[in-house]
Amino acid sequence: MRTASIICFICGIWFFVSPWVYNAYMHGNAWNCWIVGGLIVLWSAVRLIRPAYSTGLSWYNTVCGAWVFCSPWIYGYIVHTDRWINSMCVGVVVMAFSIGSARVGGRSHAAPVHG
Question: Contact, 17 vs 40, CB < 8 A?
């Protein structure tokens, strides 16, 4: 869970700074990167700090990952190949690792079964 949350945290930071890296900070969709990237960072940080009480935040990050994946079509920047591929990669990585974190977190806090 910890490794998955760290990877999501790093992806969130990357997505947050990517408008400057791709010189797209003047585009309206830069706000998407700043808001969603910030949410991914925030929820991953809370997940790292309080893992026993924050499994649901991994599911929020899954939704953010799906949003990031779909954002090139929503904001119409699929013609910018570098930004499009960036969104696809960040979205898939965040979705995969946050689902893994949520599933591991959900199992590790379940009551033991006595048989």
Answer: no
Closest CA to 18 of 88, 87, 94: 87
Q: Rounded to two decimals, what is the model's pTM? A: 0.84
Which of 17, 67, 77 is closest to 41 using CA atoms?
Answer: 17
**Most distant pair of Cα atoms in the chain: their distance:** 61
pLDDT at res. 113: 46
- Angle ∠(52,54,56) on CA atoms, nearest 5: 130
- Other C-beta atoms closer than 10 Å to the C-beta of 37 total 23
Q: Can you give the pLDDT at residue 1?
A: 79
Cβ atoms within 10 A of the Cβ of 15, count? 28
CB hemisphere CA count around 32 (13 angstroms): 21
- Using DSSP's 3-state secondary structure scheme, residue 16 falls into helix
